[in-house]
Amino acid sequence: MKHDDPSELAPRRPLSDIVSNGDLQGNLMAAACPSREVLNHVTSRWGVLALMALETRTLRFSQLRRQIGGVSERMLAQTLKALESDGFVRRQAFEVVPPHVEYSLTPLGLEVAERVRGLADWIEVNLPRILTHWDPEVLATYAPETVA
Questions:
Q1: How many contiguous H segments (helices) and E segments (strands) does the chain have?
Q2: Among 52, 61, 148, CA closest to 98
């Protein structure tokens, strides 16, 4: 006799519906909700990569830029500023010559980094399956060692 999984019987509910305790919370489906701006900061290409780079250690700007291949100084500075304004990144400036600034994740930043890490890990593991759907001409524009 087959036992039905209770999770298959009930309709899926968003986590935000399940954990809501009556406090103010975001609504990503509402056009004017600030949660959309936070989502943009966290899930932008550079936002995800900055969170992942800072997940396990504190880095100086130049170290962070080297670790995130392809990011310009301007884009990294904007990304860090946005993540700092959301409370995810801590910027610590030391009054020395030359100036020394370090970036690390706050406890809130560690929480969000854990979640984007799950998505990033899934993409890396499943990249071969994903790439089977890509146009071969587009795929050929990438370095062979990155899509092997």
A1: 8, 3
A2: 61
